[in-house]
């Protein structure tokens, strides 16, 4: 098979599915500006906000939601799945898809089913353990399964034969030189160049426990000379920060250019989403991970290998208090040698070439499918 002429990408619902999709689309476009890239989405999904501004064709198909358990009876029901799969199939036929690459989220399932029925090669990219429901469905129809982290095949039997390719990262992050970009990033937020910076972000929606703990420690952090850049989360209530702090404590509701926060920071405090772990490890940013507590522990599994490598710390959400922040963050930010060692360890675990490695895998799938 020659160069890919038409690629359909499916992934939506959360940034963890969409940002790798966008990074991979950019990689495709770099290698071949003429390749046709079509993205599948649902009418109300987050993909409608993120994909079109990047210049990619987003086609909407009817939304539906899978139950949490996967079995072959799902291929017969419900009616919404049939409707969505037919809509996806029409799009695949129209664009004459050479391959479908899915990143998870319910919108991936109609893409997988439509591709399987047309014998279009399928590649599944998964970043969590256990795999998400949509990708578990997709894995039934292809042997070409890629994962973002080395621990995944070791921890999930269904991923035992998956190819470890890394996570596609946005170019602005994959090529980030934190040291070179630090001064400009700090100036952007009104932060001083001569004092350490704690970057706090609970993800696109924020995290109440993290917000309250760090805000509650604001006075002690400031007295210790620690600056804070705090992304509250667009849907979270503003936190109360004293007005008379001696060093900057900057709060913002949302940050679309996370590379600026990464560049400004000496240390990050965040949730343990796969995308966050992949990004901060790749650029060598020491991070304190506070996994989301109301899930199947995938965020703990995401962060634990980086922590084991020496690239960060892991703390339970229930322990996240102002007192914990004061007794842990302040000494750490006063120890540049330890921070440097943590950053080096994180970078040794992370990788910046996930987009290129996934592209090689997609070419392999498109070339050898059916053989």
From TrEMBL:
Pfam family, one: Glyco_transf_28
Record's keyword annotation contains Cell membrane: yes
A single GO BP: peptidoglycan biosynthetic process
UniProt cross-references to Gene3D superfamilies, sorted A to Z: Glycogen Phosphorylase B
Binding residue positions for UDP-N-acetyl-alpha-D-glucosamine: 14-16, 128, 170, 204, 299
Catalyzed chemical reaction(s): di-trans,octa-cis-undecaprenyl diphospho-N-acetyl-alpha-D-muramoyl-L-alanyl-D-glutamyl-meso-2,6-diaminopimeloyl-D-alanyl-D-alanine + UDP-N-acetyl-alpha-D-glucosamine = di-trans,octa-cis-undecaprenyl diphospho-[N-acetyl-alpha-D-glucosaminyl-(1->4)]-N-acetyl-alpha-D-muramoyl-L-alanyl-D-glutamyl-meso-2,6-diaminopimeloyl-D-alanyl-D-alanine + UDP + H(+)
Domain of life: Bacteria
The protein's role, per its UniProt record: Cell wall formation. Catalyzes the transfer of a GlcNAc subunit on undecaprenyl-pyrophosphoryl-MurNAc-pentapeptide (lipid intermediate I) to form undecaprenyl-pyrophosphoryl-MurNAc-(pentapeptide)GlcNAc (lipid intermediate II).
Name of the protein in its database record: UDP-N-acetylglucosamine--N-acetylmuramyl-(pentapeptide) pyrophosphoryl-undecaprenol N-acetylglucosamine transferase
Taxonomic placement: Bacteria, Bacillati, Actinomycetota, Actinomycetes, Micromonosporales
């Amino acid at each position: 098979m020659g160069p890919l002429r038409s690629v359909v990408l499916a992934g939506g619902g959360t940034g963890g599915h969409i940002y790798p999709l966008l990074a991979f689309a950019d990689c495709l476009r770099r290698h071949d500006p003429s390749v046709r890239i079509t993205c599948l989405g649902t009418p109300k999904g987050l993909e409608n906000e993120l994909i079109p501004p990047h210049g990619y064709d987003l086609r909407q198909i009817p939304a539906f939601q899978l139950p949490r358990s996967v079995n072959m009876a799902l291929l017969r029901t419900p009616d919404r799945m049939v409707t969505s799969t037919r809509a996806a199939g029409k799009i695949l036929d129209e664009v004459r898809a050479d391959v479908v690459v899915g990143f998870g989220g319910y919108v991936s399932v109609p893409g997988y089913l439509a591709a399987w029925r047309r014998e279009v090669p399928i590649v599944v990219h998964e970043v969590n353990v256990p795999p998400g429901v949509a990708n578990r469905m997709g894995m039934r129809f292809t042997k070409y399964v890629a994962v973002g982290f080395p621990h995944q095949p070791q921890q999930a039997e269904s991923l035992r034969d998956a190819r470890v390719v890394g996570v596609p990262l946005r170019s602005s992050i994959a090529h980030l030189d934190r040291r070179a970009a630090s001064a400009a990033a700090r100036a952007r937020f009104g932060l001083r160049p001569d004092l350490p910076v704690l970057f706090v972000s609970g993800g696109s929606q924020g995290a109440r426990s993290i917000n309250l703990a760090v805000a509650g420690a604001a006075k002690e952090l400031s007295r210790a000379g620690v600056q804070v850049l705090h992304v509250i989360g667009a849907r979270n209530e503003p936190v109360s920060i004293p007005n008379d702090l001696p060093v900057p404590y900057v709060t913002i509701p949302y940050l679309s250019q996370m590379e600026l926060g990464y560049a400004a920071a000496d240390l990050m405090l965040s949730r343990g989403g796969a995308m966050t772990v992949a990004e901060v490890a790749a650029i060598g940013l020491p991070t304190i991970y506070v996994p989301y507590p109301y899930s199947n522990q995938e965020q703990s599994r995401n962060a634990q290998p980086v922590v084991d490598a020496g690239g960060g710390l892991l703390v339970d959400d229930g322990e996240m208090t102002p007192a914990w922040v004061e007794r842990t963050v302040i000494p750490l930010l006063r120890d540049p040698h330890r921070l440097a060692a943590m950053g080096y360890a994180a970078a040794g675990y992370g990788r910046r070439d996930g987009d290129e490695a996934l592209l090689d895998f997609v070419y392999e799938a498109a070339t050898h499918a059916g053989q």
